Amino acid sequence: MVVMRIAVVVVSLLLLAAGCGQRGSLYLRDNPPPGVKPPKPEAYTPLPYPKEAGEDESAGGARK
After folding, report:
1. Which of 35, 11, 39 is nearest to 24 (CA)?
2. Dihedral angle at the C-alpha atoms of 11, 20, 35, 37, nearest 10 degrees?
3. Which long-range contacts (CB under 8 A, 24 or more apart) does 52-58 make?
4. Helix or strand or coil: residue 5?
5. How far apart are CA 55 and CA 64, in angstroms?
6. DSSP of 16-56
7. How far is residue 14's CA from residue 24's CA, in Å, rounded to a whole number?
8. What is the pLDDT, as a whole number, of residue 35?
9. What is the per-residue pLDDT across 5-64, written as a single tens digit (0 to 9) for each?
10. Quick check: 35 and 27 in contact, CB under 8 A?
11. Is 40:34 a contact under the CB 8 Å cutoff?
């Protein structure tokens, strides 16, 4: 009997914590409700390859 009461208390606390801080219904970013405009993410800017030390040398890596 005591184990059942503890299980009910634990489950109710978990459900309470899961809904904590939620305002209204949740929505996916790809399909927002009418009137909500999600902010655009920053554009991707690729990074240039690092300049390697042997780039100025002749092909094959042989030094003169």
Report:
1. 35
2. -110
3. none
4. helix
5. 14
6. HHHTTT--S----TTSPPTT--PPPPPPP-PPPPPPPGGGG
7. 19
8. 83
9. 999 999 998 888 776 666 666 666 677 778 878 788 889 898 888 887 665 555 555 555
10. no
11. no
Q: Token match 């100025």: residue?
A: 56
- C-alpha to C-alpha distance for 41 and 39, rounded to whole angstroms: 6
What are the structure tokens assigned to 28, written together? 């996916």
Tell me what pLDDT residue 15 has. 83
Query: Per residue in 17-55, is it b (16+ CB within 10 Å) or e — as a string?
Result: eeeeeeeeeeeeeeeeeeeeeeeeeeeeeeeeeeeeeee
